[in-house]
Amino acid sequence: MENHTEVLREVFGESSSDGEDFDPQLEDEKITDPIPSWEQIKEINGLWLCRDFLSPQLQSSLVSSVLNEGWFNGDSHNQAMRFGDLPAWAIELSSSIREAVLLGDYVSESMDLVTSNGWIKPCLLPSNLLWREPLFDQLIANVYHPGEGICAHVDLMRFEDGIAIVSLESSCVMHFSRAEEGGSDIVEDGEKHQLMSKIPVLLTPGSLVLMSGEARYRWKHEINRKPGFQMWDGQELVQHRRISITLRKLRQVD
Ligand SMILES: O=C(O)CCC(=O)C(=O)O
Ligand SMILES: [Fe+2]
């Protein structure tokens, strides 16, 4: 962000003091409590994870809001999509995402921008995406029972760049693999194995994933919850129901 003071002023309001210039240092406690901690997935440009995005209370209230929509009342339904006007809770969720990005960028930019080797810290989400209106206008809520997941895919091109996924309930491992075809495949015992290894990312309840740029367009993501695939730290994760909320923006058609 170019001017954080302005941005923070806009989002969090004026300083409570007497009209003096806004001083982020003085405002620290108000605006950085709690500070979201963002982790960059180093192997994949544009992939960020915020593990403490939603407190346990906010997680349960979000689960209630989703279930209260009645989308999953029949056993056969495990996915719901909404376009355009999103439910109030989803609009609130979008605002919290924008806020978490702003706070994350604010915290990292308050440190030295340029490191000793001249490398500039990448931002969480390019500002043209962060400030578009609305930030998101499409949502998918998925409910996964134990053993259920989602095949490797790149999200459809009908959606713009900048995709957010909020995870609730059971933890899972999402794997990322390069979307490029051919090149590095080898054939062994009649099966195709990709030389390129998959990058595992642990999605704990209440976490937020942000995908933009390469992470969104050049990497596939998948969740394989078949036995043996949900390994983390040498242990297989115990599976319960998992709910995810994916937020995206539809591409404008000219
Ligand atoms: O459930 C998830 O965490 C991912 C969902 C997803 O990738 C999608 O709906 O495109
Ligand atoms: Fe996806």
UniProtKB/TrEMBL annotation:
GO cellular component: mitochondrial matrix
PROSITE patterns named in the record: FE2OG_OXY
GO BP annotations, alphabetical order: DNA damage response; fatty acid metabolic process
Region (Disordered): 1-27
Annotated InterPro entries: AlkB-like, AlkB-like_sf, ALKBH7-like, Oxoglu/Fe-dep_dioxygenase_dom
Biased composition (Basic and acidic residues): 1-12
Compositional bias (Acidic residues): 17-26
UniProt xrefs under Pfam families: 2OG-FeII_Oxy_2
Entry superkingdom: Eukaryota
Record domain Fe2OG dioxygenase: where: 135-251
Family: Belongs to the alkB family.
Protein name: Fe2OG dioxygenase domain-containing protein
